[in-house]
């Protein structure tokens, strides 16, 4: 570990506070470090490894597609990507897909597409409404829609008006729409980096109503919430909406870089050759692994299985909350996206994360004092038991 730590500091730019472990390999829901320690992975590479690590369906596709071809460029038809796009559309909104390599690229694509719509059909509408504490990425365009205190936002800004509203305040949303005449409303159904804050179903429906009646575009950022994490393929589906555009990434490439947008009928045919593109995406290998993930989720009962595993974990956490009311506040989220509000100080929360790591459990901390869990859908009851046991012991220690 120490040698990797020193070399990391010397050769990699200082853009992340890394945990002091170097991973050697992973199997299922367990990470192994170079010192021989094991960790139960409740972070899944930030919601990427939906089925944990080395899932047989994903490994089989990795070998099959990996042995066929890795990259061909956008000058040719790309069967794995066509198949993935078709499945994403059939399980969400009627429209077309554009693929990029990451979440931020999905946001950039959405900004460009909405901009083009604004110019051609916007009738004077301009800009985006975003939620306070939203996260939509770190490239220059994406960072302008992001509302996180820790994200450096002070860049030269092109002409893109952004209007920030408090989540779950329909009055304010109505007022901003009336006063500012925005082209689009963009929201995460559950704000992830914002501390796992779900938007109320009624609020999402009000958003959809405003967009429908006032001719604005409804954009759902499903980069963290999508690909089965909340029990449906996309989280907006719980609210019975029809967004005009869906952003996806993280879990969609089965562990490899892939992201993009699903554009509904209003937007699907706006881009023409030359308007937008990228060299690598859609990587045939990422798309093939994404198809393997969808096989499991949609055709082999993976969504239902994930929901069962999530229910088990939630029951545990609710019991723990009743038992330790001085340590645990609200528990928020849905399915395998969970925020446990604690009464820890930021320093204590950081220490709890390190203590749990020592106990062999990897969790994330969001908004300084919220334990954020992004477990694999394959988390077994045994693994939930182990986590709940370690968490209980550590919280009792801290609050005794
Ligand atoms: C992670 C994330 C992004 C950015 O994705 P990257 O792949 O890191 O660029 C955007 N929106 C949400 C909701 C995310 O969770």
TrEMBL record:
Alphabetical keyword list: Aminotransferase, Pyridoxal phosphate, Transferase
Pfam families given in the database record: Aminotran_3
GO molecular function annotation: identical protein binding; pyridoxal phosphate binding; transaminase activity
InterPro entries referenced in this protein's UniProt entry, alphabetically: Aminotrans_3, Aminotrans_3_PPA_site, Class-III_PLP-dep_AT, PyrdxlP-dep_Trfase, PyrdxlP-dep_Trfase_major, PyrdxlP-dep_Trfase_small
Co-factor(s): pyridoxal 5'-phosphate
Domain of life according to the entry: Bacteria
Signal peptide: none
Family, similarity comment: Belongs to the class-III pyridoxal-phosphate-dependent aminotransferase family.
Name the UniProt record assigns to this protein: Acetylornithine aminotransferase
Organism for this UniProt entry: Melghirimyces thermohalophilus
Lineage: Bacteria, Bacillati, Bacillota, Bacilli, Bacillales
């Amino acid at each position: 570990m120490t040698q990797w730590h020193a070399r990391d500091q010397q050769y990699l730019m200082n853009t992340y506070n890394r945990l002091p472990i170097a991973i050697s390999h992973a199997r299922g829901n367990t990470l192994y470090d170079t010192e021989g320690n094991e960790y139960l992975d409740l972070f899944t590479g930030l919601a990427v490894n939906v089925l944990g690590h080395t899932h047989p369906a994903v490994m089989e596709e990795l070998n099959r597609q990996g042995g066929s071809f890795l990259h061909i460029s956008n000058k040719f038809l790309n069967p794995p990507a066509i198949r993935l796009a078709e499945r994403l559309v059939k399980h969400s909104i009627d429209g077309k897909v554009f693929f990029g390599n990451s979440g931020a690229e999905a946001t950039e694509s959405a900004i460009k597409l909405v901009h083009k719509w604004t110019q051609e059909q916007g009738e004077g509408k301009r800009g985006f409404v975003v939620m306070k504490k939203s996260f939509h990425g770190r490239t220059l365009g994406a960072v302008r829609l992001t509302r996180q205190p820790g994200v450096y936002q002070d860049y030269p800004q092109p002409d893109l008006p952004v209007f920030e509203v408090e989540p779950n305040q329909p009055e304010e949303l109505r007022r901003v729409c009336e006063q500012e005449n925005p082209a689009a409303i963009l929201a995460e159904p559950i704000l992830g980096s914002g501390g796992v804050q779900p938007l109320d179903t009624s609020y999402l429906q009000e958003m959809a109503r405003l967009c429908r009646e006032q001719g604005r575009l409804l954009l759902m950022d499903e980069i963290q919430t999508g690909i089965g994490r909340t029990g449906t393929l996309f989280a907006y589906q719980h609210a019975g909406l029809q967004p005009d555009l869906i952003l996806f990434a993280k879990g969609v490439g089965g562990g490899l870089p892939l992201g993009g947008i699903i554009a509904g009928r209003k937007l699907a045919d706006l881009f023409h050759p030359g308007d937008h593109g990228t060299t690598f995406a859609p990587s045939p290998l990422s798309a093939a692994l994404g198809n393997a993930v969808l096989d499991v989720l949609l055709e082999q009962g993976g969504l239902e299985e994930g929901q069962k595993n999530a229910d088990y974990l939630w029951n545990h956490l609710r019991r723990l909350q009743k038992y330790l009311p001085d340590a645990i506040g609200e528990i928020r989220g849905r399915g395998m996206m969970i925020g446990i509000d604690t009464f820890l100080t930021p320093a204590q929360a950081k220490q709890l994360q390190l203590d749990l790591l020592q106990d062999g459990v990897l969790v994330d901390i969001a908004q300084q004092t919220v334990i954020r869990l992004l477990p694999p859908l394959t988390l077994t009851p045994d693994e939930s038991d182990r986590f709940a046991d370690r968490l209980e012991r550590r919280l009792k220690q801290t609050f005794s």
